[in-house]
């Protein structure tokens, strides 16, 4: 697992200040967890194989 891959795509609509972003990653998102082995807490760091995110942002200005 020596390579990480990222794919992003975004769109913005200026009139209404809306934006959407979609991203997909492979071998990039690290996470850790603590497990107990023989009554001893051990921290494990792992890499998530696949991850998908979808974000939508809306903005409104009050006059």
List the SSEs and their pairings:
Layout: E1 5-13, E2 18-37, E3 40-58
Antiparallel strand pairs: 1-2, 2-3
What does this structure look like?
There is one protein chain. A 3-stranded antiparallel beta sheet has the order 1-2-3, with no helix packed on it. It has one domain (5-58). By secondary structure, it is mostly beta strands. The mean pLDDT is 81. The protein contains no helices and 3 strands. Strand 1 (5-13) and strand 2 form a beta hairpin. The radius of gyration is 19 Å and the shape is elongated.
**Total strand count, please?**
3
User: How would the global form be characterised?
Assistant: elongated
In order across it, which strands form the biggest sheet? 1-2-3
Radius of gyration: 19 Å
Biggest beta sheet attributes: 3 strands, antiparallel
Counting helices, strands and paired strands, the structural category is mainly beta
The assembly state of the depicted protein chains is single chain
Number of domains: 1
Distance between the termini: 52 Å
Mean pLDDT equals 81
Strand content: over 45%
Q: Which bin fits the share of residues in helices? A: under 10%
- Counted by DSSP, the helix tally is 0
Short synopsis of the structure:
The protein is mostly beta strands.
Key features of this structure:
single chain, mainly beta, 63 residues, elongated
